[in-house]
Structure prediction request, 765 residues.
Amino acid sequence: MSATHQLSPVARLEQKTVVDLIVKGKRVDDRGPLDYRPTTIMLGVVEKANGSAQVYLGKTKVLAGVKIQPGTPFPDTPDEGILTVNAEFVPLASPTFEAGPPDENSIELARVVDRGIRESKAIDLKKLCIEPGKKVFMVFVDIYVLDHDGNLIDAAAMAALGALVNAKMHAFRVENGEPVYLEEMMPVPMQNYPVSITTAKVDSVTVLDPCLEEEQVMSCRLTVTTGKDDNICAMQKGGLGFLPPDEIKQIVSTSISKAKDLRAKILSNVK
Amino acid sequence: MDNNKPVRLLDDNGLRVDGRRFDELRPLKIEVGTLDKADGSAYVEHGRNKILAAVYGPREAHPKHIALADRAVIRCRYHMAPFSTDERKSPAPSRRELELSKVIREALEPAIMSEYFPRSTIDIFIEVLQADAGTRCAGITAAALALADAGIPMRELVAGCAAGKIDGKVVLDLSDVEDKQGEADLPVALMPKSNVVCLLQMDGSLTEDEFKQALDMSTDACRRIYEMQRDALRQKYHVVKDEADKEEEAEVNA
Amino acid sequence: MNAERKQLVIPGDLLGEGPYFAGENTFRDGTKIYAARIGLADIVGNKLIVVPIKGAYIPRIDDIVIGRITDIGMSGWQVDICAPYPAMLPVSETPMQRGRDIGRRDLTHIYGVGELTLAQVIAFDRTRDPLLTTKGRGLGKVTSGRVARITPAKIPRVIGTKGSMITMLKKETRTDIIPGQNGVILATGTNPDQERIAVEALYMIEREAHSSGLTDRVRAFILNEMKEKEIGQQQASSVA
Prediction:
């Protein structure tokens, strides 16, 4: 069951400061409306995982890990590997996160990131088949939010993509329906690189990559995920505010071109 | 690949799988204040363990009814990331994580001067990002630093280190393969100034003498780790002393 | 005294032994006095203390605080003053409303949820939540200005010895700056740029609280910003 969120922890006067600045074309941290905060992506930070990536998006910190293990395929896709995306909003990341099962925010984030990867066919799941109908590889993407300063969706999507691109698994051959691992390592079979761009609406203005202070005053947000061919593969509007159709088209257009820059940045970290 | 093939844990020269001698600690790296939102935080790499600890508090007790009239409620959550272990671990808390949350809280709570903050809570979160045996000890080392970093009054810091037995020999600071294939595991946490043990668990098989050896070895290591904790705290706040003097003088003269 | 004055100490460090009193953020064990928090050791008379670098705001009677209204009750408002305890501002502690009966609707008109108040702590102890008043001079609803939130332990640095830092800030940014003991600071000027510069200067002080030459660096920062935004010239302050 979803319920209205608790009242804002920000005083009205402070909200007004943020809104007034944005309406004037300035942001609390001096960015332009289309600027992303300084972004750092480090790959391979958790060696035990098949792949991992740590993203710093301004002060937001998200870690993603990829684990690949054999499992049973779904009956309707017997020759495809399985992708599972999970997100944890661990309580150390924010005074507002509580320990417990994933809440609607972390589930929404996990599903949006999942759709981006799945619908863009980023992973060639057919190449993860061991024995059709019996055994396939499961790719677990676990997103761990470590420090919440806004725009967790984009940071998480970046971390997930980085972790997948970084991920290595043992090459294998199939013997009697079981995988036999070879010495040689191979990357996860990737064929697309989805990037999500989130735009926040504050009063009458839209800004990209909202930091926490901006999220606290925005009326709504729109996340647009695109693949390398500029095809849109996932979208999500969040929040109680409204968006006129023309504005949506504008946002989508901006998001597609911004995704190109971000994708180049993520992939430049791959060795 | 298969981590479970039996290996020889001590070679002919008495060296361990990772080249260490029997009484050698794995390398440690400590950073204080790594997170922005938490009131206090610390990141510890102990061998291949990667552990992040954060503290929030003292803060309002939610729900109100858990509050105590005369002191803060200390809450502790030890949790492992799904990608932290060889096999992916489900994010839902396991029985082991619940047990460890309890023993870790019981190790840290006595050091915290919780009577300063009645009717509030102090929350300690330990997240294991990569596990390689000895996570509860490294978690305590990190959590004590996070508490100090948050400015929470404490009697002293707490440091943790395990000892164990492999191939019949008592050794310090087991690694993952040694823990899985060894004969005993003894996690210990110490309050170094008072010289008292605040966490002690054991599983496996040890004679009384072996236990005494293992205990001495681990408490000794805790003292060494405590010095590293102090250095890490000094590193973060080091500008403080020298400059505070000069500034004060300059202002009074201005 | 075992620790030097202004030495960085961590919990459990020995400060002194013998003829001393255990002051704030220290504790006594037998004849020895130890640091309880990370901070700078100091001695006041024969009292050993630790000046903290960080920590939660614990209210004290007479503290001036800036708080946010979080709830409206039967006879007053609940206020978040960034402490582990919610504070209460009873309507009886606001300037008199000409003696009429105050109903709940009127309470909303005085303060709504989310508004800010500049108040003073009049009661607080271990068994009860803090009680506030806005009856003093200058206290009451905050309707304009910009807010900075810093760690309460740094408020003394914002004020400075004998008020030196805050006097400089007010003069150079030409804003009125009111620091709450709870770490919330209000900067009110005649134009938003001045307020912004004041707030940035405050965050700069928080970041660099214990580095040398801070007052000069903050002044230089402010003057540079003011000039860039062409916020009028004023006589350059003489630098000693």
